[in-house]
Amino acid sequence: MSILIYADSNNGALTKNAFEAVSYGAQLAQQTGSSAVAIVTGTVSGIEDLGKYGVSKVLHASDASLDNFDPQKITHVIAEAAKSVGADTIIFSHDYSGKSVAPRLAAKLDAGLVTGAISLPNTDGGFIVKKAVFSGKAFAFVEVNSATKIVSVLPNSIEKKIGEGSATVEAFSVEIPSTNLKVKEVRKESTELSLTEADIVVSAGRGLKGPENWGMIEELAKELGAATACSRPVADIGWRPHHEHVGQTGFAIRPNLYFAIGISGAIQHLAGVNGSKVIVAINTDAEAPFFKAADYGIVGDAFEVVPKLIEAIKKL
Ligand code: FAD
């Protein structure tokens, strides 16, 4: 029996979520006495580092046509890799690529799929996966009965185990099918920190009054090494780009530290951020709903509090 883990990459480097997924797969392999193998696609450096996360072998399908993300091609490559290693369980991160490849692969392999797992499956006589539902308000325990099982792991929900191991990297050559997806243009990748992978996120809402006031939010984020985010109305009215919008209809994030500045804490916003480990809310209204979800609350004017925070952090 073997477990195959898709280690995703971005701009030629493995993503933080890839290391998490590999660690999850390796821990599951240890629990079930299986072997764990990772698969990497396209031109990627630092693949050997995956050994430290518990896999002893990495298959590398390095065909340059896999450099631009095409879920149909990646699905085909992973299906072939699964066949070649006899994988009965395939692991993804529940991120952009996992969300688009895992369901395609499940259909192709007639496999049971559980998305957004938050802990290792219970494998005592079955295969039961725990996931959060209703925006984290309840848990579901999903039993997978199919011969092949696919699990996607919610980012930032498991502890990565890092050891001293090393992995052998094997070239994995497979015929890449032509697909109906054609990349017309590749825009230069932004140097901004990825919102879904950031450890710290500084987010602001309508309380900031206008786009011209985001300088202090960006400065605070820069001092903390954080990504920036915003509430939905802020993106809707064009104060900030849509790719910063978090919540039920935006990105769901689970950073270690989330700053909510001038955001009321509506249920639709909380749905995307309440998995954060620590939440700090700054709001002039002591009755703002965010204070109920926050670990730390500052009742005060963002225009006074944020500059003071920046000043204090600079002194650290
Ligand atoms: P407001 O509700 O206007 O709140 C501004 C806050 O700033 C207030 O609490 C105020 O006290 C505070 N404030 C004002 N001045 C200051 C100051 N100087 N300093 C500090 N604090 C100050 N919203 C999302 O964010 N994400 C979603 O994904 C999302 N999806 C939705 C889906 C549906 C179907 C619907 C119906 C709504 C959705 N919404 C979503 C909208 C959501 O209901 C709220 O309207 C929205 O989150 C409010 O944004 P806000 O907190 O920035 O603005």
TrEMBL record:
Alphabetized SUPFAM superfamilies for the sequence: Adenine nucleotide alpha hydrolases-like, DHS-like NAD/FAD-binding domain
Organism domain of life: Bacteria
Cofactor(s), by name: FAD
Positions that bind FAD: 206, 231-232, 262-269, 283
Textual note on the cofactor: Binds 1 FAD per dimer.
Pfam families: ETF (PF01012), ETF_alpha (PF00766)
Gene Ontology biological process terms, A to Z: fatty acid beta-oxidation using acyl-CoA dehydrogenase
Span of the signal peptide: none
Gene Ontology MF, one: flavin adenine dinucleotide binding
Residue span, Electron transfer flavoprotein alpha/beta-subunit N-terminal domain: 3-185
Keyword tags: Electron transport, FAD, Flavoprotein, Transport
Similarity comment: Belongs to the ETF alpha-subunit/FixB family.
PANTHER family recorded: ELECTRON TRANSFER FLAVOPROTEIN ALPHA, ELECTRON TRANSFER FLAVOPROTEIN SUBUNIT ALPHA, MITOCHONDRIAL
Protein name: Electron transfer flavoprotein subunit alpha/FixB family protein
Taxonomic lineage: Bacteria, Pseudomonadati, Bacteroidota, Flavobacteriia, Flavobacteriales
